[in-house]
């Protein structure tokens, strides 16, 4: 009995020593070598070159979005205030020649409308009739269209960013998850420490896509409303100019009628 217990203990000791000296499995992971910095900057530094490119592109798109917002907001406020000021001046008892003289060499939208109207009146030899009104209306329409295109420049970039940024972020997400599965295949383990970095990079790309897209859509809609209001101001200025031309025609007709008497 004692001899059997001694043999059993000896076998146990030999088995313990063998397990301790056996080489580690090929799929064992050195935990110290796994990335542990999962901060946004750390994930960016540890990301694949494709995912890095996606992240940089989305960051640049976000900067462009806020730059366009600041520039167009300042431009809209300045031009809208000037358009209101000039339109109110046209509401008084003012002649077309006087309005053109006041604008001088200004290049704002309402000044361009006034100068175009005065130019057509000059080319018509001072004859105010239905033909002049039609020609003036055509000129004003063309100037309004040109000024509307000018004020809307840059907003198309916002529409493009808002439409494409989520899909670009999704591409980075797919690429990051694909890298995570490649890491699982190479390490032969489903340890979360192996999968986490790739999934974190993928989620970061998704987040950057939303950060770029959501403000772009909101700002685009805001600027579209501002541009529509600006176009309405130009329409009011054109209407005032047409009324001014019509009043001058009525005065001319009245003078001709009195002369005929």
Residue share in helix: over 70%
Q: Give the rounded overall mean pLDDT.
A: 77
Largest sheet: none
Report strand %. Answer: under 5%
Structural class: mainly alpha
N to C succession of SSEs? HHHHHHHH
Counting DSSP E segments of at least 2 residues, the number of strands comes to: 0
Pick out the low-confidence regions. Answer: 18-34, 253-261
Morphology: rod-shaped
Terminal-residue CA separation: 151 Å
Question: Could you tell me the radius of gyration in angstroms?
Answer: 37 Å
The DSSP helix count reads: 8
Question: Could you walk me through the main structural features you see in this protein, from its secondary elements to its overall organization?
Answer:
It is a single chain. With 261 residues, the chain is mainly alpha-helical. It has a domain at 50-175 and 203-251. It is 83% helix and 0% strand. It is built from eight helices and no strands. The chain has helices spanning 2-21, 40-46, 49-90, 96-103, 109-123, 130-151, 155-187, 192-260. The longest helix has 69 residues, at 192-260. 26% of the residues are buried. Residues 18-34 and 253-261 have low confidence and may be disordered.
Brief synopsis:
The protein has 261 residues and is mostly helical. Helices cover 83% and strands 0% of the residues.
């Amino acid at each position: 009995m004692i001899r059997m217990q001694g043999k059993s203990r000896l076998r146990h000791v030999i088995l313990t020593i063998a397990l301790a000296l056996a080489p580690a499995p090929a799929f064992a992971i050195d935990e110290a070598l796994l990335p542990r910095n999962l901060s946004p900057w750390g994930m960016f530094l540890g990301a694949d070159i494709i995912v890095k490119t996606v992240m940089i592109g989305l960051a640049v798109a976000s900067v462009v979005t806020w730059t366009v917002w600041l520039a167009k907001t300042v431009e809209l406020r300045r031009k809208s205030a000037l358009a209101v000021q000039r339109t109110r001046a046209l509401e008084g008892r003012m002649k077309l020649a006087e309005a053109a003289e006041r604008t001088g060499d200004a290049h704002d939208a309402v000044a361009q409308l006034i100068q175009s109207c005065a130019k057509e009146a000059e080319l018509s030899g001072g004859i105010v009739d239905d033909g002049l009104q039609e020609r003036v209306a055509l000129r004003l329409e063309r100037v309004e269209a040109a000024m509307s295109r000018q004020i809307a420049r840059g907003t198309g970039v916002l529409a493009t960013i808002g439409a494409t940024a989520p899909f670009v972020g999704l591409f980075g997400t797919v690429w990051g998850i694909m890298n995570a599965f490649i890491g699982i295949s190479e390490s032969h383990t489903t340890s979360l420490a192996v999968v986490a970095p790739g999934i974190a990079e993928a989620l970061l790309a998704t987040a950057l896509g939303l950060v770029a897209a959501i403000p772009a859509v909101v700002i685009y809609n805001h600027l579209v409303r501002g541009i529509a209001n600006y176009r309405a101001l130009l329409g009011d200025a054109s209407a005032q100019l047409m009324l001014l031309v019509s009043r001058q025609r009525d005065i001319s007709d009245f003078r001709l009628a009195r002369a005929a008497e």
